[in-house]
Structure formats: structure tokens, C-alpha cells
Amino acid sequence: MFSDLKSVLHLFLTVLHSRNVFYTLTSGLPNVTEFVAVYVVDGVQIIHYDSNTERAVPKQDWVNNVTEDDPDYWEERTERMIDNHSSFKAIVESGLQRLNSTGGRHVVQGSFGCDWDEETDEVNTFNTFGYEGEDFISLDLKTQTWITLSQQAVVIKEMLDVDKPRLTYFKNYLTHECPDGLKKFLNYGKSSLMRKDLPSVSLLQKTPSSPVTCHATGFYPDRAQMFWKKDEEELHEDVVRGEILPNHDGSFQMSADLNLSGIKDEDWGRYSCVFQLAGVQEDVITTLDKRVILTNWRSVKGERHIKLNFSHFFTFKHLEYKTPSYNQSQKYKHFKEKSENMQIKCLIFFFFFFFFL
After folding, report:
1. In this protein, which residues make up the domain named Ig-like (predicted)?
2. pLDDT for the residue 13
3. How many CA atoms, within 13 angstroms, populate the side-chain half-sphere of residue 30?
């Protein structure tokens, strides 16, 4: 039965790869770079360009492998970025005139790219443009029309819908150039981007009455799932799953809590934590066992057990490349606050532990 469940669950862990491009154009902001472009593959920043330096530069050593096939790549990429800056700026200026907002300070951002399913070869595209930090307009490739995401965008839609050459450019980029470029860079960086790293899994518990946390850290990529099972059946009640979070070294971590209140001591061996990683058929299974739980509470004899690995709590550092995305900047702010709150709680916990126990 569980083998069937395992097969079904692995269907949802398809090996997806992504390529994203983030543009940010500002006006009226002193000491702020006017135009910045960031290229990202599978969550890793690979190329950076800004209007101050007017140079496209690699952000990973392996990205330079592109010159083996195209010796003039960086010169051509730089020229293209200069052209894209001018084109993007012209569109924005025309749009601001239609919005009667030619003066003052403004921020316009673009996020577009594609996902490629390694197993099915299916490609999905996405694009969104933002204005003043809010979603503004996006392109529907099926109808080849622009979709307004803000009331202000109506007049911009009218301008862009009649610009057929630009529609053709976006369609070609998203459906052909983007996936082709994604596969190319995956090949150049396959030792890094296409690796499969299984995690270190630990069982953690604050007190004897607390839930047991199954914590996995150090896995890559971030397409993974974790759940608790009893015998061969996945549990949904009494289980709280955490979100996947990034580690400072580019790997990821996640956790799932199991409420022990309804579990008899003699049944502990029937419960297991299961970790699954996309592209890896073998699961990492950890049986619920009191002997392997890492804890910091006193035993019956009054012995103090200090076994918690501090690294489990202080690895919440977000990657810098995501800040150019207007939506992700809000997620980053929320994530940063959440991480800082977790660190503060942990510090308070250990302070009281050492000084009052």
C-alpha cells in the first residue's frame, strides 16, 4: 500500500527548472542605479547588469563556460542589455505620460521567465510587470493581449496591445529563447544546479509533552516534501508541516511536527518521518524512537541533556538576488521578520534554560 502511496507522491515532485529575468527601472531617485537586470537559474543568480557599469558580468564561475561555445557572449550580452535599458525606459516614459505622472519618483519592475519540466519536457512561461511596488500588467501569450492587474494599467494596455512587434518579441523570448537558454545554462552548471543532495534528518523535542519535530537540512534542490506515517499510511491529523526555507550555503531545510498526545509508548515504532526529494527514488525514513530524539530537558535522574544543534535554528538567511522582484521584496520582508523572531525566541529559550534550570 505504501509503495503505491510513494509512487503517487513522487508524481508531485517533478524535476522543474526555471529561468527568471528581473528588471528594475527607477527615475527621480538620487544615488539609485537607474536600471538593473538580474538573471537567475534555479534560484541562483548567474548574470548581473546595471546602467552604472554598463557591463554584463557572470555571478558564478561556471557561467563563464558559455564563452567556450560563444567567445563574444559577454560583449553581445552587454550590448543587448544597453538596448533593453533604452527600450524599457522609452516604454516607461510613454506610459508615465499617459498616466500624467512624468515628474516625481517612480519604480517600474519586470519579472519574466519560464519553467521546464525535465521529465515531461513541458515548458510554462510567466511574466508580470509592476509599478510603484504593485502588480500592474502581464502578457497573455494565448490571446496575445495584455492583462491589466491595476485600474491604472488600462491606458497602458491600450498602448501595448497595438505594439505588435513587441508582442512578437515577448512571445519568441518566452517560448523559445528562454527555455533554450535555460537548458544551455543547466548544462554549463550541471555539477551545481542539477545535483541532488539528500539532507541530514534529526528528531527534535523541547519537552516530553511537546510535539516531536522531524527536521531535514542540507538538501538540494528545494523540490521536496516531508510527512509522518503510521505503519504504511500517511498522517494528516496531528501533523503540522513547515515551509521550505533556504540555508546560508544555498541548500534548504524543512520540518514537520507530530503531536504525541494520542500515541501510546508501545506504538512509537509504528511511526516514521518520510522525506522525499525530486529526482531521487529512495526516501529518507526516520523511525520515531526516544533514543534518537535530540532534546534539552532533564531526565528522571535530573541529568541535563544538551543535545540540540544550534545550526538548526540559525540558518535563515535569504538570498540577495531576489530583492529586485517587487512581489518577492514583500515576501523577503515577511520572511526576514519571521526568521529574526525565531532567532529571538531561541535566544530567550536558551537564556532561561541555562540560568533558571
Report:
1. 199-286
2. 63
3. 0
Return residue ranges of the chain for CATH 2.60.40.10.
Answer: 200-319
Q: CB within 8 A of 330, min separation 6: which ones?
A: 133
* pLDDT reported for residue 300: 43
CA pair distance 84, 38, nearest whole angstrom: 13
CA dihedral 50, 332, 17, 246 (to 10 degrees): 120
> pTM for this structure?
0.71
Calpha distance 354→357 (Å, rounded) = 6
Domain 200-319 has CATH 3.30.450.40: no
From the CA atom positions of the chain, what is the Rg in Å?
Answer: 25
Helix (H) or strand (E) holding 58: strand 57-58
299/205 Cα distance (integer angstroms): 13
pLDDT tens for 296-323 read 775 444 434 444 443 444 343 333 333 3
CATH number of 15-192: 3.30.500.10
From first CA to last CA, the distance across the chain in angstroms is: 47
Write down the pLDDT at residue 104.
87
